[in-house]
Amino acid sequence: MANSLISVQIIPKTEKYEDVIPFVDAAIKVIDESGVKYEVHPLETTMEGEISELMNIITKMNEKMVELGCVNVITQVKILYQPSGITMDTLTEKYRS
Q1: Among 70, 76, 78, 94, which residue's CB has the most CB atoms within a 10 Å radius?
Q2: Which conformational region is residue 45 in: left (phi greater than 0), alpha (psi within -120 to 50 degrees), or beta?
């Protein structure tokens, strides 16, 4: 069972202030290609897995933004670390019908 839930929001800054949605889509693609369980929400994406693996994914997301031409990236992160195990479903099951 996963030991962490991490919610991440990427805010890329481009030189010419282009639309950032394609950059955010590229960041989400990094998550998708990693194979971890995740859910996209309007203001952030939540991942489920081992804390070290999820932090590596966040590093790759930031590197991807720079690779695509971003001047810098603000990354906001929320971490729930629970060594005994945690899942997104555990926290949200009562809200799902």
Answers
A1: 70
A2: beta
Q: In 3D, which of 61, 62, 10, 2 has the Cα closest to residue 37?
A: 2
* 13, 69 Cβ separation under 8 angstroms: no
What is the reported pTM?
A: 0.93
Q: What is d(CA 21, CA 25) in angstroms, rounded to the nearest whole number? A: 6
Q: 3: how many CB neighbours lie within 10 A of its CB?
A: 18
Q: Find the mean pLDDT for residues 55-72.
A: 97
Checking DSSP bridges between strand 4-14 and strand 37-40, what pairing results, if any?
unpaired
Six token digits for residue 56: 């590596």
3-state secondary structure at position 30:
helix
Closest CA to 46 of 94, 9, 20, 82: 9
